[in-house]
Design a protein that fits this description.
709 residues, 11% strand, 36% helix, Recoverin, domain 1, alpha/beta, disordered N terminus, 3 domains, 6-stranded mixed beta sheet, Purple Acid Phosphatase, chain A, domain 2
């Protein structure tokens, strides 16, 4: 019996698990393994009896009190072999050939052998590996590979060979490769067709796929046991850069010298890819436990102490060593003046000389009213003659001005130059984020602002008066920051500045008004020219739009809530999978031409078929998988309740939060209670509507309406 090989010959402790139940779980019957497939695979991977014993010990220890690996235990183990989080769902699917949702020791060690980097790819081992590869790319587990799934496989093979392909080149290469399977293979590809084509050498390159970044043999030998593994993947992988082409400077289990993760290229990763914009960020995953301190890691004192008024306003920021010699610091305690690289951003965020703080300080001045001639103030006017380098002006006297105006003392050229610098710097931050970002609750989600700086300040005072850094929540804005309202420049400057101060807590998505052609039709282009003149105004406008070109397009909160400006994509674009958004190129200057999927999610609207007239139009939508022409906007599509339900089920999501449409109460609950529209600009275009936001916390979606009176 095979169990003798796995258990009895080792005399292993089973760590509190009853030995009979362990034997029952691990026993490989001769009937099911009559051809010795397991032995042959282990032999090909060079996993000998001693190494099997070590793997068994780890398996039992990590799986207790069960005798199988569930997704979390599997994820914990495979990340130690260098697999990144975005690979784990597809990898688990490839191991779980019986679709039990958990792995016995037999299936676990067979999977380890199949992905061993040194295993030969010929004969029986090659056929077994191809079955694993097929399951890996079969993201919806329908025993067929769609063309998009096949295209992901082709992309990985090319990348393993160190070849660079654009998206168009990849499409043509995948279409050419699909022809070897027959005329019908463009739609779907079955396992038998796949194995036959590979066995007859009609389709080549599978030997490069599904190779573990770290050999299990190397791991067991003690190399790599203590290597740090980021949540985004092994060293050098998953830095959060957006895919600009199919080639990259990253490395991983699907490449030799270059390549994007499979989750960024298509549905091979399956479901929602937990991709983070920051390499150091810990990404939540069903395969991994919540963030816990690593070995040797502990809490540390923050460098700054913050003083706050009872109104919630920050009035003073001091470093801890500013308190030396006072009763606040015990005389025996030596506070080290730590200005290391790790604390550099912290020091910048609280520094008056940090550009975003300069901009925010100027916006405070813009927000205030100053009454009476010769009004005095202890601080000089930002970007005025008094603050210019080498100026001898005191700046202690301010001219009167109304709230939400700049007054006469601001030097517009100096202000414009600072905005230009801000745009260039925030553009780089956006470019490092994936097109689909993942966020962990609590999160406040805000909709369209449309140049309504007054309402934005109301939200600030209610939700993040201490600033995003000192607020225990994240903030997600769904786009449409400019046009129609009077203060688009100020809204953009504020949001960009806060993004630089708290890049991992302030998230900005792109809406349909973050497009040059739309802004020239409406007001933002003219607003920039009126503020700074034709030449400098055009320069500022273009700098703002270059930052817009790099903005993410969608977000997922807690792996369950899809957030976007417009609406869901149709199923004939990227298979209707949210992963497809990761394929969208960056920067994206003309979405309608360069990335139709981006155009759709920025413009689409939900619709109730009962309100469609004539009835024939509703029937057309039903016949087109729940999508129809968006006649109200003259572009993109509307989607029905059925289309929404299909999208949510396909991606294992619970809700969609979107913006894009003004709502009288600031929000609207739409089809089947699973789609929420939020609008965050009150009195829009002179109307009487309210502003609102959505709080996602503790598995609840709570609407907060803002009283701006």
């Amino acid at each position: 019996m095979m169990f003798k090989m796995y258990g009895q010959a080792w005399n292993l402790p089973v760590c509190g698990v009853h030995e009979h139940s362990a034997a029952k779980s691990l026993k490989l019957s001769e009937e099911k393994d009559s051809q010795g497939i397991t032995r042959e695979l282990l032999r090909a991977a060079k996993i000998n009896a001693e190494e099997q014993r070590q793997i068994y010990t780890q398996f039992i220890t990590r799986s207790r009190p069960h005798v199988c690996f569930k997704k979390r235990q599997f994820g914990e183990f495979m990340t130690m072999l260098g697999w990144s989080v975005e690979h784990l769902q597809a990898l688990f699917r490839s191991f779980d050939s019986q679709r039990h949702g958990c792995l016995s020791f037999k299936h676990f060690i067979m999977g380890l052998a199949a992905v061993e980097p040194t295993i030969e790819h010929g004969g029986t081992p090659a056929e077994i590996r191809c079955r694993y590869i097929f399951r890996y790319y079969d993201s919806n587990q329908d025993n067929k590979i769609s063309f998009r799934e096949f295209r992901s496989m082709v992309a990985d093979i090319r990348r393993c060979k160190g070849q660079t392909l654009s998206l168009d080149e990849l499409q043509r290469e995948a279409e050419k490769s699909a022809m070897v399977f027959g005329s019908e293979s463009r739609a779907t590809l079955g396992l038998h067709e796949f194995l036959t084509a590979v066995g007859q050498l009609k389709f080549r390159g599978t030997s490069l796929l599904l190779r573990s970044p770290i050999s299990i043999l190397r791991y067991l030998a003690g190399v790599g046991l203590h290597e740090p593994v980021l949540a985004n993947g092994p060293a050098g992988e998953g830095g959060g850069k957006s895919p600009r082409s199919i080639s990259s400077d990253k490395s991983g289990p699907f490449s030799r010298s270059s390549g994007l993760s499979i989750a960024q290229l298509g549905p091979g990763g399956g479901g929602i890819s937990p991709v983070s914009g920051n390499p150091a960020a810990v990404t939540e995953s069903p395969f991994l436990p919540p963030r816990v301190p690593r070995l040797g890691e502990s809490f540390e004192l923050a460098a700054h102490s913050v003083k706050v008024k009872k109104t919630g306003m920050v009035v003073n920021v001091s470093t801890l060593w500013d308190f030396e010699g006072t009763e606040a610091i015990n005389g025996t305690l030596n506070i080290q003046r730590d200005t290391s690289f790790n604390r550099l951003h912290s020091f910048e965020c609280f520094s008056d000389s940090f550009l975003p703080n300069d901009i925010l300080k100027a916006l405070r001045y813009f927000e205030r009213s100053i009454k009476g001639a010769g009004a005095s103030a202890c601080a000089p006017v930002p970007f005025s003659a008094a603050t210019a380098p080498g100026s001898k002006a005191s700046g202690s006297t301010k001219s009167p001005k109304d709230a939400f105006t700049w007054g006469r003392e601001i030097q517009k050229t100096a202000l414009a130059q600072s905005i230009l610098q801000l745009c260039h710097q925030v553009e780089e931050i956006f470019a490092q984020e994936p097109r689909l970002i993942t966020i962990t609750s609590p999160v406040y989600v805000l909709g369209d602002l449309h140049g309504n700086y007054e309402d934005l300040m109301c939200f600030e005072k209610v939700l993040w008066r201490l600033g995003p850094l000192l607020t225990p929540a994240s903030f997600l804005f769904l786009g449409d920051y400019v046009d129609r309202g009077a203060h688009g420049l100020e809204v953009v400057s504020y949001l960009f500045a806060q993004k630089m101060v708290a890049p991992h807590k302030f998230f900005l998505l792109r809406g349909n008004h973050e497009l040059r052609v739309v802004q020239k039709t409406f007001t933002f282009y003219d607003e920039c020219l009126n503020a700074f003149g034709d030449t400098l105004g055009k320069e500022v406008w273009e700098a703002v739009n270059k930052a817009f070109d790099n903005m993410p397009l969608a977000a997922v909160i807690d792996k369950k809530i899809f957030c976007v400006h417009g609406g869901i994509p149709p199923p004939y674009m990227g298979g209707g999978m949210v992963n497809a958004i990761l394929d969208i190129p960056c920067p994206l200057k003309e979405p309608e031409k360069e990335a139709p999927l981006a155009w759709e999610i920025m413009w689409n609207d939900p619709v109730s078929l009962e309100t469609i007239w004539p009835p024939e139009a509703a029937n057309t939508i039903r016949q087109n998988q729940g999508f129809g022409p968006n006649t109200k906007r003259g572009t993109a599509h509307v989607f029905s309740e059925d289309a929404l339900q299909d999208f949510l089920g396909r991606n294992s999501l619970s809700h969609v939060i979107r913006a894009h449409e003004v709502q009288q109460s600031g929000f609207q609950l739409q089809p089947c209670g699973r789609c929420l529209t939020v609008f965050s600009s009150s009195h829009y275009c002179g109307a009487s509507n309210e502003a609102a936001c959505i709080l996602c916390e503790n598995m609840k979606l709570r609407v907060i309406r803002l009283d701006t009176a």
